[in-house]
Design a protein that fits this description.
Helix 1 runs antiparallel to helix 2 (about 80-100). The protein is α/β, with parallel strands linked by helices. The strands form two sheets. It has a six-stranded mixed β-sheet, sandwiched between helices. A two-stranded antiparallel sheet has the order 1-2. The mean pLDDT is about 90. The protein has helices at about 35-70, 80-100, 135-155, 175-180, 190-205, 225-240, 255-270, 285-290, and strands spanning about 20-25, 110-115, 120-130, 160-165, 170-175, 210-220, 245-250, 275-280. It folds into two domains: about 25-110; about 120-290, von Willebrand factor, type A domain (Rossmann fold, 3-Layer(aba) Sandwich). The protein is built from eight helices and eight strands; from the N terminus they run βααββαββααβαβαβα. The protein starts with 18 loop residues before the first strand and ends in a 6-residue tail after the last helix.
Amino acid sequence: DGLELPHLERKALKDLDEVKPVRAGLTRDGVPSRINIVRSMREAYARRIAMRAPIRRALREAQEALEVEERKDPVLRNPARIAELKAEIERLEKRLEAVPFIDTYDLRYNNLVNQPQPSSKAVMFCIMDVSGSMTQAHKDIAKRFFLLLYLFLERSYEKVELVFVRHHTAAKEVDEEEFFYSRETGGTIVSSALNLVDEIITRRYPPAQWNLYVAQASDGDNWDDDSVNCRECLIRSLMPRLQYYTYVEITPHAHQALWEEYETVAARFPERFAMRQIIEAGDIYPVFRELFKRRSG
C-alpha cells in the first residue's frame, strides 16, 4: 500500500525483554518436537557399528573354526567341539539381532537459547482538539483521520501501542471509546496536550527502547500566547525524542498563530515534522497518504 511509519528503528538491546529462540548446537536432552532426526540417525548408525563389530568378529572366528572342524575326517572330528561352536554361533547371532536400531542414547535435540533481539516497538500518540472552536464537522473529520491511522497501524504493525489524548483547556489521556465518542468540550490550550505527552513519554516510554510518534489534529485556534509554548515544548523536549510528528489543521480559513509557530518547528526538523491542511472530508485520505507515504532508502 506504500505506507509506513517513517524512521522506524530497531532499538538497542539494553533492558529489553524481547528475545528470539535461536539454534545453539545439539543436546542429549529435549522435547520430541526438537529432535534432530539426521543427527540422531547418524549417532544410531555409529553405535550399531561400534556394538556389532566385536560380535561380528567373534562370529566370523567361530564360523571359521566350525568349518575347519567339519572338514576334518569323521574319525578325527570332535563332536563336543562342533556342538560348542554351533551354540556359540547361535548365541552371537542373537546378540547381533538384539542390538537396537535406535536407542534413547542416540537421540540428539536441537538446543535453543533465547537471544535478546533489537526491538521495533513503537507508540503512537493521537492528540485531538475537542475545544469549542472545533465544530462537529471538524471533529468528525479529525475522528475519521484518526480512525484511518488506527486501522493502518493495526493492519501493518504488531508492536504499536496507541495512546489517546483529548484536550480543550486541559488535556487527558483517555481510552479508545472516550477518544472517539466523548462530547466533552471547552476552551483551547494546545500546550496542555503536548506537556501531557511529554510526561507520559518520560514515565512509560524510554526513547532508547521505543519509537515515538505523534499525530495531532486541530483547527489551529489556540489561547492567546500558548502557541509559543507549544513551539518551545516541541523544540526543546519532544522533537529530540520523537521519530516523527504529524500535524493536520482542519480549517477552510487562513492559518493562525499555531500554524506559524509549527512552521518554525518544521524548519528545524524538516525530515521529522510534517504539517498539512484539511479543508473538507475528501482531503483526509490524500493528506494521510502524503504524511505516511513510504520514504525511499
